Amino acid sequence: MSKLVYQTVQDIREIVLAAAGRAVADGRLASEPLPDFGIEIPADRTHGDYAVNAAMVWARALKSAPRKIAETLMEYADFSDSCIDRWEIAGPGFINLFLSGRFYAGVLEEIQEQGEDYGSSDLGAGQKAMVEFVSANPTGPMHIGNARGGALGDCLAAVLEKAGYQVTREFYVNDAGNQILKFGNSLAARYLQIYKGEEAVPFPEDGYQGEDIKTRAAEFAEIHGDAYVEAGEEARRKALVDYALPKNVQGLREDLAAYRIDYDVWFPESSLYEDGELDTVLADMKARGLTYEKEGALWYKATEHGGEKDEVLVRANGNPTYFAGDIAYHHNKFAVRGYDKVINVWGADHHGHVARLKGAMDAIGLHGDKLDIVLMQLVRLVRDGEAVRVSKRTGKSITLKTLLDEVPADAARFIFNMREPNTHLEFDLDLAVEQSSQNPVYYVQYAHARICSLFKNLKAEGVEPRSCTAEELCALNVPEERELIRHLAGLTGEVEAAAKAYDPARMTRYALELATLFHKFYTACRIKGEAEPLMQARLSLADAVRSVLRIVLGMLKISAPESM
Description:
With 564 residues, the protein is of the alpha/beta class. The protein is built from 21 helices and 15 strands. Helix content is 51%, strand content 13%. Strand 11 (341-347), helix 12 and strand 12 form a beta-alpha-beta unit.
């Protein structure tokens, strides 16, 4: 919560406790140990800005009716030095408190003073956090699920940064293992088909069917001709992978850059093999008694550490499994690089992998509870009211690149962050490009542009905004003004809630509500033509909204246009 909100809540707590102390000293309340009480924001703000349940919580200890306790507390309470304007007792003994103009003025002053830092929190206390997201196999272009994962992961990282964590964005490049073998076999088949024909060279049943495989094979043939047709299978596959893989990784980098995602680290899986880290981790697991051999393979006793079944670490042919690499990779995150918190954004189809990986971290002496997995549900693309059919296997799909060719990055990043990660998302391609209030990102951006136009028009008429006194800001007392300021005051709380829940969608919802409240205020409260002090106070409020919209959109890496 913001400093002012935090201080107000602390003041309320201290005032209630001080009132209880004075009442006990006068013999009006019994001298008994008292449990903690809650201070909450009522769902209906006509019931107050804060509700205190101390009277109900203390009723048993004080052996008195809650309403009587509440009346006694309010008799002794002194709100004179606080931001509380008045109070009332409701129901069985709730104490409802109403904020004064001093609070509302203070919120606007805090926004002006803190600038881009407004909304920041020290929740993370400088802890090192990594968000690993997308990490698409470099065997082909990124699909629509990666588009959602990219927006979620990048915005979650921004939320954590705003909440006081030192954040690293990381992409795990799966450039080793079985998928690279399949990639090489797919490329080799397409390469040979160029010279021998498709009927003469069967395509692997588990191969990658995308047109990008044909393209890479054709590029390779253009450079090397038929030089690798008669080469050995392994040499041909290696040459094709060595050519195509770097190009694919570069393609991923370029597509993600167009999506406004810049990773701090691109971590190659192959480095775990080359540096011997995988061997070191496997040796440690053997020494800890976590493994056994069976039918020539090395197995991990996963069932002893939260898994549903034991897992193969090294196949009988000597090749490590993906799971073995994953254990080594996360060992690197915690033990080598020292992250306090690691968050992976995965597709929901990986849910079975969560418990076994966290269990493996515990098993090797690391803290599985420091590893958190955000499971992301599927995206349903819609055009003209109909679902767009995609198939990753056949290669007939909308990729991140083709999506961004059609939909602005602003719209894509906003819409992909409009639902909690664990809920299914419908992405309307028509709505995403529509320039109307029905398009959520357009609606929010229009609020920012509207405020910029307001200031521009007033400046043309010779009206310049100025700093207002607290007394002038206290005049912002109509419901639309106060509702808007209360929402501005809640930014830090939303940032903290989003960071705790790993839910950056809270920020898009916050921005939408802020835009709605601003439009409501702008319709109800005249600015131009009012008396100069009130006009300036309302301009200060409009400027505060503009600043906060820019902050939130900036966290989402969405532009804040000055005209539309």
